[in-house]
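@channel sequence for tomorrow's demo:
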Amino acid sequence: MGLPRLPHLLGIEGLSPETISGLLDLSENYIDQNRSIDKRRDMLAGRTVINLFFENSTRTRTSFEVAAKRLGSDVINMDVATSSVRKGETLLDTAMTLNAMRPDAIVVRHQESGAVNLLSQKVNCAVINAGDGQHEHPTQALLDALTIRRRRGSLQGLLVAICGDIMHSRVARSNIHLLQIMGARVRVVGPPTLMPTDIDKMGVEVHYNMKSGLADVDIVMMLRLQTERMQGTFVPSISEYFRFFGLDHEKLKFAKPDALIMHPGPMNRGVEIDSEVADDLDRSVIHEQVEMGVAVRMACLEALIGGRRNTATGLAAGAAA
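structure tokens (generated this afternoon):
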């Protein structure tokens, strides 16, 4: 399959199965490279990648930085806390300022849904969505898919349960889109207070208890409570939440005996997942997800800027995407 060429990566929704498979296949090429002593290549030598994170991140920002450097790119991490944004500069002003420096890619995380899409229309370089509000987090879904595919061979026909705070999770939305595009069945499991109002339109099975939600599933994907996005009280207490929706070995018995355990991180142990389950060497692939994240982000950078030049033509292509 040929290398997918994209102007931007703003979300999973709308991507074709061929594009997703192409990105996963390309990611496979980087796994052995990342496990070798000499991890650096010069594919993106002379290119510049800017990490622009308006929200805190450890895994995603570091993963993008490592990915870009291993491809030979120069990387700039913008510290929004000390930038002109704190002085009242708007997102679009920031975008135009960065665009004038002629980067080749900007990786953006923003607290508002749609902000990354807006920014992509104002710059003439590739833009990668590293998470926008409650909308999407496409590279997380891709690395989750790569992890599953390497363990199960394919996503087609798998039954996947996404459990926890579905309402506030961009990871859940991106995974729902990707899994369905690739032929998997998706269940969402959690309390009614943490289900999106439009969940019935997303083509998933909705379960409000772990026993029915985990019954015979191949993959259990846990999500953290995103308290920073909550306005009001969504659960009675942390202990009550863990009792009914936290993943432990008792609840895991409802899933298939070889069901894989996943979590996008950061984990809240004792809230949505028990430590013994998270650290289960036979079934947990949480650390493998982190490793796959670097390979996936290398693939995305290659697909977006490997053969691209920063030109006005690029601006037109990006604005039309």
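heads up for whoever presents: The two ends are 22 Å apart (CA to CA).
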